[in-house]
Amino acid sequence: MGFSLNGFRITKLSNGIHVLSENISYVKSFSLGFWFDTGSKNESVKNNGISHFIEHMLFKGTSRRSAAKLSDEIESLGGYLNAFTSKEHTCYYGRGLSQYIGKTFEVISDMVLNSQFKAKDIRNEQGVIIDELYDINDSPEELIFDKFESNIYSGNFLQHPIIGTEENINSFDKSMILEYIEKNYTNKNLYIAASGLVNHDQIVNLADKYFGRRKTGESHKTKSLRLRKSNDLVVNKEVQQIHAIIGKPVDGYNSKKRVAINILSHILGEGSSSRLFQTLREKNGITYQINTFLNSFYNVSSFGIYFSTNPRNFNKAMNLVYAELEKFKKRPISKKEFSRARAYVKGNIILGMENTTNRMMRMAQSFIYFNRIKTLEETVAEIDKLDQAELEQLAVEIFNPDSFVRTIISPEDLQTHR
Predict the structure, then answer these.
(1) How far apart are CA 319 and CA 205, in angstroms?
(2) Which of 209, 251, 303, 320 could share a disulfide with 257, CB 3.0–4.6 Å?
(3) Which of 276, 296, 292, 295 has its CA nearest to residue 284?
């Protein structure tokens, strides 16, 4: 079953796999991604980190190719292989010249279908990932984001950090890996997406060739999210600076409000002309890093304000942040701020679409989330339709200081106030 819509072609194979493609005739390359609808959202306390662990293990060799050969077969043709794990997805992807898409497809298929998971490789990778975990723990500007999301999503499926725990990582073995793969790496959970100078029918034929006889398996159902009230969290570490996030859960991809919240995030704290940057860095000189962020999932987003500063300036910085939040009740968004933020967001999206990997990723995520592919024109139109008065009303609702929780990494116990 297949159809074409807005320049995209979509085919669902009889065994449940979806193939998505976008042909771009003016490039000579492709980006190809194998997306599995699984991540740390599908883990338990006991096996947290296994999605990320498996992502690493698929590069360790198959029954046909060693780890070195997997990379060499692609790199010798001028391409590359990579992968990532998020809370909601695991993606294995490659990029190269268009004439080599068949080889890239074959290699990624081999990784997915024929990885051996040798005991020696598992032990070696446990050491590698534990080192990665230590790197995160030694980097407060990274660690704080894991702590923040574990705090605001405590008690539900988004609370688990992607990398997992040292105890879990050391416990993973071949039987646990195969059990997880059988349950989560099913055809119904697999989306194969390609963007660039690609031939849709060729990709469909390759998918049928390598996965045609594979069992369909089950697809994941969207989980309902039950948010609990969170409290402030302070983590004491040997650091020189205090790192802080002030934030809360807000609307996710499934909400029309998310676009407006993204614009508000830019007005408040993204870019050197934002309110927070001007107040904390330019006017008061008490922080080097200050920015807002919006990390989105299907049914929720993590919105936060991140900054770092020295202990003697911490309370002043915190008070200035809360003062800026309060100003949205009294100080309307100016036409200049509104126009700048819309132009900034649209510019970032449009510039990102000049990269085939970004286009492939946007296409796949759109289909997984919405069962359709949103066009660039749709996204831009949503931004253009935003009403300034409605945005100001939403700002008062979202930027309520009493609704924010604080996550802090500090060199010592702090007496803090708002």
Answers:
(1) 60
(2) 251
(3) 276
pLDDT at site 352: 92
Which pLDDT score is estimated for 220?
74
Question: 6: phi > 0 → left, psi -120 to 50 → alpha, else beta; which?
Answer: left
- What are the φ and ψ backbone dihedral angles of 155, each rounded to 5 degrees? 90, 0
What tokens appear for 130 in the block?
């534990």
The pLDDT tens digits of the residues spanning 157-190 come to 899 999 999 999 999 999 999 999 999 999 999 9
CA distance 276 to 393: 20
For each of the domains in the chain, give its residue range(s) and CATH number, in order of start: 2-211 (3.30.830.10), 233-410 (3.30.830.10)
Q: Which residues in 199-238 are b (16+ Cβ under 10 Å) and which e? A: ebeebbebbbebbeebeebeebeeeebeeeebeebeeeee
* Structure tokens given for 299: 């049914």
Give the number of other Cβ atoms within 10 Å of residue 107's Cβ. Answer: 23
Q: Around Cβ 191, how many Cβ atoms within 10 Å?
A: 22
Secondary structure class of 217 (helix, strand, coil): coil
In the numeric block, the tokens 């979202």 are attached to: 398
88 contacts 41 by C-beta, under 8 angstroms: yes
First-last CA distance in the chain: 58
At which residue do the structure tokens 């990102």 appear?
A: 352
H or E stretch covering 91:
strand 90-97
Residue of 257, 258, 275 whose CA lies nearest to 266:
275
Query: What is the DSSP secondary-structure string of 105-165?
Result: HHHHHHHHHHB---HHHHHHHHHHHHHHHHHHHT-HHHHHHHHHHHHHTTTSTT-S-TT--
The whole-angstrom separation of Cα 74 and Cα 56 is: 17
* pLDDT at residue 5, rounded to an integer: 56
Torsion of CA 109, 111, 112, 116, to 10 degrees: 140
pLDDT, position 66: 96
Dihedral-angle region of residue 337 (phi above 0 means left; psi in -120 to 50 means alpha; beta otherwise):
alpha
- DSSP-derived secondary structure letter, 333: P
Residues 6+ apart with CB under 8 A from 254: 298, 299, 369
